[in-house]
Amino acid sequence: MITLIINIKELLQIRDSSITKVSGAEMAILPTIKNAYLVIQNGLIADFGSMDNLPEIHADKIIDATGKIILPSWCDSHTHIVYAGNREQEFVDRINGLSYEEIANRGGGILNSAKKLNETSEEEIYNQSKVRLEEVMQLGTGAIEIKSGYGLTVDGELKMLRVIRRLSQNYLITIKATFLGAHAFPLEYTANHNGYIDLIINKMLPAIAENKLADFIDVFCETGYFTVEETQQIMDAGIKFGLKPKIHVNQFNSIGGIQAGIKYNALSVDHLEIMKPEDIEALKNTEIMPVALPSCSYFLSIPYTPAREIIAAGLPIALATDYNPGSTPSGNMNFVVATACIKMKMTPEEAINAATINGAYAMGIASSHGSITIGKKANLIITKPIHSYYQLPYAFGSNLIENVLIEGEVIS
Ligand code: NIG
Ligand code: FE
Asked: 84-120: per-residue pLDDT in tens?
């Protein structure tokens, strides 16, 4: 099956296969071809170039993209889209003055979602989650990481990871699974942290590894959740089971989580709303991807990740949604890209790099996703007719996507 797309107003994010992430000043550069064509063969990008050099191609299907821009689909490297129910009441409680932390301390927050998840059948969790997955695919996401972490019991965590696997079997979108048993301490372990960590290490991890249910291990390293020492213990165990760490750090406090991530060679450190100069300094000369989640900052009214300082230090940055029922009930990567420009002062070029190639890196899939490169998956966004790619973040409330292709197939 050969699809030929012609008359593309501008084709964005053209990269050589050797590029797996872009950092520092390079993030300001977004290589493009104006008036371009693109050939898709068997779900992969087979060729592209200027319309001036269009070769003779016997295509099964031709798409005319006159006036439209094409870019690689978004790579959302941090989500919690498998969950049961919602936390709308907590949203209203926060409007009325309670903080996210106060709600959590009253048994709401993650424990509220865990209660709901454990009371909901696997089938029902699957049905609720697939609606969210289908929604984000329509919004241009072509690869996604999904975490467990609302089970907090052996059965609950395995149930979540099986739902993630079933989603990845039933949908063309690339899905990476992360085990986040260390998301919060269940109430019965409040005074017995070692008991819960023992459960994670000796019961959950072996069962997950045996069934190959996860690619990565995550820990919520934060005051009131997991200490740096506890985080290290869990990362260490995860690595022994073949899971690379991707960790929640510096959301509300800078307590040394980044330094722990560096020590255990994490693929990414995520959130980073509260950064001390030494946190940025520590990330220099590492291969770790800093991941910012601006719609979480927006929803909770907490500081935004200091992207300008991170980029000025020569570091890369990726953007993701954090889609979850408590801190970010939205999986819209278009909004994330716009908010990064508007609130974090990232340029459109930096934000698009952060949401494509750097997002792919943060999921370990940069060799197959995140750029227009021959041999990579034809996971593409085709916009409506627009003036320039600046319009994507500029018109922040509009849906400017006309079509999304996953492995060359139009999904709608
Ligand atoms: O990334 N910070 C920890 N975990 C999620 C929120 C979890 C929740 O509130 O349900 C996050 O923001
Ligand atoms: Fe998160």
From this structure: 999 999 999 999 999 999 999 888 999 999 999 999 9
Tell me if 296 CB under 6 Å of ligand 1: yes
CATH 2.30.40.10 residue ranges in the chain? 2-72+371-410
Dig out the tokens for 410 from the structure.
């139009």
Please state, in angstroms and rounded to a whole number, the distance separating the CA atoms of residues 300 and 254: 18
| pTM (global) more than 0.90 | yes
- CA 399 to ligand 1 centroid distance, Å: 26
Nearest CA to ligand 1 atom 9: 326
Amino acid at 128: Q
The CATH architecture to which 75-361 belongs is: Alpha-Beta Barrel (3.20)
Atom of ligand 1 at shortest range from CA of 78: 1
113 Cβ below 6 A of ligand 1: yes
Q: pLDDT by residue (tens digit) across 300-358? A: 999 999 999 999 999 999 999 999 999 999 999 999 999 999 999 999 999 999 999 99
CATH code of domain 2-72+371-410: 2.30.40.10
The span from the CA of 291 to the CA of 308, in Å, is 13
326 lines ligand 1 (CB under 6 A): yes
Sort residue 322 into left (φ over 0), alpha (ψ -120 to 50) or beta: left
Atom 5 of ligand 1, residue of closest alpha carbon: 327
Look at residue 107 in the predicted model and tell me its pLDDT: 85
